[in-house]
Amino acid sequence: QEVIESYRQNVIETFDNDIDFGSYIRYSTQLQINDNQIGEFSIEWQGDMHKLAIINYDLYSKASPDRIIYGIITPSVYDEGSWKLVALLTAHEISKIFNVKSHQLPESSRQKRSFRRQLVPPRIDDDLIKNTEWTLNFKIPDQLSEQSWIEKCKYSLENHDLPLIPIISIKDNHHEINWIQFVYGGSQRIYFNIAVNYQKVQLLFDGYCHEQIADGTVIPNDVSNMMVKYYPNIVVCECNLDLNDIRRGNK
Fold this sequence. Notes:
Shape: elongated
Strand order of the largest sheet: 1-2-3-4
Strand content: 25-35%
Order of helices and strands: HHEEEEHHHHHEEEHHEH
Distance between the termini: 20 Å
Mean pLDDT: 85
Helix content: 25-40%
Low-confidence stretches: 209-215
Number of strands: 8
Radius of gyration: 23 Å
Largest sheet: 4 strands, antiparallel
Number of helices: 10
């Protein structure tokens, strides 16, 4: 715990507590794993060979605010197969200590174009709410009928005081941005939420339309383009996430 606190004090970015900082580190590590960005090196130090890996956490040094600091992780001597964070260093420090040059360092996951494009706030409209199969795919509040739930969602879309918050969602070896829209539950000041995300529409249909069907032909491109055009770009992906999960993912 003291180690995590010392690392947190060395970065510009602010975190409410060590638990939030630890969650950020775990999320960032998984992003780097998914993007194949973790650089693994064998380093000679004090006459011995040491294995280490470098992670880009998208954090900046408090001592040098214009410099990114990278996580240095090494195999744990106590838990075979696991790694532990042992230092946060700038590119200059890494080069000086380990002779790993800046071009060898991992690129940012959060600065990737595919990631940043998902950070554009989506336009959630009434049609999306109306056309979502709520009772079939989601667990809506027990005290509400599907029609009442739809009406509350529509009302909440027009209430600009209710926040729309981006969070990182990680499942298996894939991550994406989910946008959380809070839903006003009624006079008791109860709030629910829905999560929407951008669909990788072209990728979905590329995979489908380029598979050969039984007679050996392929679905024509004009048909594929029309399917893409009319396929909804925003879909509801989850409903009523835990508030702690929302807070941890909003980093």
